[in-house]
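Changelog-linked ticket: glycinamide ribonucleotide example.
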Amino acid sequence: MALFASGNGTNVQRICEHFAAHTSIHPAALFCNNPRAFVLERASELGLPSIVFTKKELADPAFMLPRLQEYGTTHVVLAGFLAQIPGYLIKKYPRRIINIHPALLPKFGGKGMYGMHVHEAVVRAGEKQSGISVHLVDEHYDHGQIFFQARVPLAPGDSADDCASKIHILEQTYFPLVIEAWVKGLDKPVFPVLNQVETEYTQTL
Ligand code: GAR
């Protein structure tokens, strides 16, 4: 499994911890398009090799594919990756690339909708709930088949930061489990592994 990330890397860290002792699923390398991202420091602490690339290199199959193959990549997980995935990668890994989005798609998705921008938009719209969506990646931002969502209520006075904290807990709780179900489910005749989790926010979740 190759992990693609651009920023802080809390999801990468959680995924690595979850799969540390797994018998068949292994995070093999971090692919990062931002040389200043904190996720690179996390990867180094975790002993996860990292590959940093430019926009031009991402667009170039001759650069990316050998590097993905070098790590035996069969699946790609976008864990806070903020650039668009080029078509050749989607063709190379059909239904084998997933993304996590910090809102209940199809609302609050699309270009420019990432990180705090999403939570600010959710709060501005007066939403009574938010959540996470995990979906297959196609050539449009936040567009492929959604196969997992988890929801959390928002209170009337919640700020974008409050919303971000609630979403962070959902991501830390569910994303590794969803990745595991996706990898295993792909080998079964029925896909998607559809799941909807309603969750009440608690500090201990
Ligand atoms: C996460 O909340 C993830 O859902 C979001 O970026 C954050 C990365 O946090 N992804 C998107 O907004 C994609 N459109 P992290 O770097 O701490 O894992």
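Closing comment: Example verified and attached. The domain at 2-204 is CATH 3.40.50.170 (Rossmann fold). The pocket of glycinamide ribonucleotide is lined by residues 5, 7-11, 39, 79-80, 100-102, 113-115, 118, 171 (CB under 6 Å).
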